[in-house]
Each structure stands twice: as C-alpha cells, then as structure tokens.
TrEMBL record:
<keyword id="KW-0472">Membrane</keyword>
<keyword id="KW-1133">Transmembrane helix</keyword>
<keyword id="KW-0808">Transferase</keyword>
<dbReference type="GO" id="GO:0006629">
    <property type="term" value="P:lipid metabolic process"/>
</dbReference>
<protein>
    <recommendedName>
        <fullName>Wax synthase domain-containing protein</fullName>
    </recommendedName>
</protein>
<feature type="transmembrane region" description="Helical">
    <location>
        <begin position="61"/>
        <end position="81"/>
    </location>
</feature>
<dbReference type="Pfam" id="PF13813">
    <property type="entry name" value="MBOAT_2"/>
</dbReference>
<feature type="domain" description="Wax synthase">
    <location>
        <begin position="182"/>
        <end position="262"/>
    </location>
</feature>
<feature type="transmembrane region" description="Helical">
    <location>
        <begin position="257"/>
        <end position="274"/>
    </location>
</feature>
<feature type="transmembrane region" description="Helical">
    <location>
        <begin position="224"/>
        <end position="245"/>
    </location>
</feature>
<feature type="transmembrane region" description="Helical">
    <location>
        <begin position="294"/>
        <end position="312"/>
    </location>
</feature>
<comment type="similarity">
    <text>Belongs to the wax synthase family.</text>
</comment>
<keyword id="KW-0812">Transmembrane</keyword>
<dbReference type="InterPro" id="IPR044851">
    <property type="entry name" value="Wax_synthase"/>
</dbReference>
<dbReference type="GO" id="GO:0008374">
    <property type="term" value="F:O-acyltransferase activity"/>
</dbReference>
<dbReference type="InterPro" id="IPR017088">
    <property type="entry name" value="Wax_synthase_Magnoliopsida"/>
</dbReference>
<dbReference type="InterPro" id="IPR032805">
    <property type="entry name" value="Wax_synthase_dom"/>
</dbReference>
Length: 351
C-alpha cells in the first residue's frame, strides 16, 4: 500500500504540471495544428504514467482517466471543442483534465454549490461500499452459482467497483473546486433500452467525450447511424487498450471486447430505426412499446448475456478475475484493520 501511495504521489506530481503546461501553451494559440503541436509532449507522456502502479485497480483507473479521457479532452482542446478551455482557472483546468469529472453547466444547476459533500451522497456511497465489500466476501461462493447468477454477480461487482472509484475522484474534485459536477452514473439498472443504458446512465464521462470527438463529426458527414457505430467502435478499441493496462499482456487483447461494443452499436442503430418506424408507421408498425419493467428486464438481460459472452470471457480465461478479487480482499482487509486501529485509538482518548 505504501508503494502505491508513493506511485500516486509521483503520478500526481507529473500530471499537475503537464496539465498546467497544456493550459498555458494553448492560451495564445489558435485551435488546429498549432495547438496540437504544443500538446504533443503531454500526449506522449500520459500513456506511460499508469505503469507506475502495480495495483490492478489503480493502474486501470489511471489509464481510464489519463490515457482515454484526458487524451480525448486534450485532442478536443486542440480542435477548440470540449470541456477544456485556456480561459478556465488553473485549478479547475487541471482537475477537469486529469480526473474523470465534468463540471455541471450553469443552466443545469438547481441550487448553490458547496464544497461540502451532501449527507445523502455520503450515505448512498457508504451503502454501496458495504454491498461491494459483501460481494467481495461472497466471491468464494461464485463457483457454485448457476450461470445466470454468475453473470449478475460479476455485473454488480464491476458496476459497484467503477462507481465507487469514480465517485471518490468526483468527491475530491468537488471539495477542491467547490463546483457541482455531472453525475457519472444514473442508476443503469433502470435502463429501458440500450441507448438509454449507454447514453444516459452508464459511465457518463465516456459519452461526454465520445459525442464531441467521434459521434458529431462522423454524423455530420455520414449520418447518425454511422456516428453511433463509430462511437461504439472507438469505445471498444479503447476498452482493448484498457485491458492491456489491466493485464500487461498483449495476448489478452483478443478483439472480443471490441466485438462486444460493435455489436451494441449495431443494436443501438437498430433500436433507433425501430423507434422511427413505430413513430411514422401504420398497421403492424404501430406496435406498442413494452411496459417499462419488461423493457428494463430485456435491456439488462441483453447487456449481461452479451457481456458474459464477449466482455467477461477474456477476463475469466486469463484468471484476471481472481487477481482482481484478491486485490479487493486485500483492500477490504486493510480498511478493516485501519478501522480497528482507529477505534482502539479513539477508546484511549479521554472524553
């Protein structure tokens, strides 16, 4: 744990000046090739930083934040688009560039922002952390579960792990910036379609960068269907890159994850076509939409079924799932020991 904290400090010490340089270097340059040229040193540095971590979780989260989101944000900055702008205050620029967060637009903000975390936020994520710890503890029973339960178990594990890590980054950013942030997840277990799941509920920092960088440019030239397919294809490729950072084994990047996202992109296009046909159709095309509960069940069944087939297959085949669980168990044990020590220390303090 101490070595990972040192690595975190070293990576932070490299990222902060790199993002500060990106802000000042682009401030006097017009969007286009001049900005891109100025950003090349930063773009070349970022892919190497996650290798500082030996922890699978920290290496993965840093690769997601720096190699995917940050690189795409900087490329958008070079083109004069996206959430970053040289006029932003330095601290906000650095935080928004390096962390998987997005500051909420003024028109979406409903109340004054505060640096304090809302009690409901803390309670919600405390409950999710408890459920995640219970899942980690129950992992030993996974082998005896039926296939459908294994898929649900793994899906819940991935969802809670991602949301807890991203929420930690968001909480730190909110305390530092004192700004309201866009939600990173919005109850994906309530999605009523694939477009709803991927576009409005699951890991929303990804569509926030894929829309301006991939979907809109492709849509402008080739139409909405091509834009959707291109965005999912790029997402699949970037997930393959993340799998390399997770495993450090090029042999684990088999293309199955790319196929998973390409399949979902094609299905989202088919969904859009079906909705359009229903709106303008007659007779047989005037099918009623299924009830919300049925639509949610169908959506989650498709996501988990195809995920078990294509997304989780390389993970389980390589034994990576066991390594991830072992690391989670180590973190849970560390937190339990820290809690016991804190409780013991508190009992020694006179009231």
């Amino acid at each position: 744990m101490a070595s990972e904290l040192r690595a975190l400090a070293a990576v932070s010490a490299a990222v902060a000046p790199a993002m500060a340089y990106a802000r000042f270097a682009t401030a006097r340059l017009a969007p286009g090739l001049p900005r891109l040229g100025a950003l090349l040193p930063v773009l070349a540095l970022l892919p190497f930083l996650p290798f500082a971590f030996s922890s699978i979780h920290l290496r993965t989260i840093s690769a997601f934040s720096l190699v995917w989101l940050c690189v795409f944000k900087l490329l958008l900055l070079a083109a004069g688009h996206g959430p970053l702008h040289p006029s932003l205050p330095l601290v906000r620029f650095v935080a928004c560039a390096a962390l998987p967060v997005k500051v909420m637009d003024d028109e979406k903000r409903r109340k004054p922002t505060s640096r304090r975390l809302a009690p409901e936020f803390v309670l919600s994520y405390a409950a999710k952390a408890a459920v995640f710890a219970a899942l980690v503890s129950a992992r030993c029973y996974r082998e005896g579960m039926p296939a459908y339960a294994v898929v649900a178990f793994d899906g819940a594990h991935v969802y809670l792990m991602l949301e807890l890590f991203l929420a930690t980054a968001a909480a730190a950013a909110r305390v530092v910036l004192g700004a309201e942030l866009e939600p990173q997840f919005d109850r994906p277990y309530l999605a009523t379609s694939l477009a709803d799941f991927w576009g409005r509920r699951w890991n929303l920092m990804v569509p926030a960068v894929l829309r301006p960088s991939v979907y809109r440019p492709v849509r402008a030239r080739h139409g909405a269907a091509a834009g959707v397919a291109a965005a999912f294809l790029v997402s699949g490729i970037m997930h393959e890159v993340l799998f390399y950072y997770i495993t450090l084994d090029p042999g684990c990047t088999t293309g199955e994850v790319t196929a998973f996202f390409a399949l979902h992109g094609a299905c989202v296009v088919a969904e859009r076509w079906w909705w359009a046909a229903r709106r303008r159709g007659h007779g047989a095309w005037r099918w009623r939409a299924p009830p919300r509960a049925v639509a949610t069940a169908m959506t989650l069944a498709f996501v988990t079924g195809t995920g078990s087939w294509l997304f989780f297959a390389p993970v389980t085949r390589s034994g990576l799932d066991k390594a991830i669980v072992a690391e989670c168990e180590g973190v849970v044990a560390f937190l339990e020991e820290a809690g016991r020590k804190a409780a013991a220390a508190a009992s020694l303090v006179p009231s």
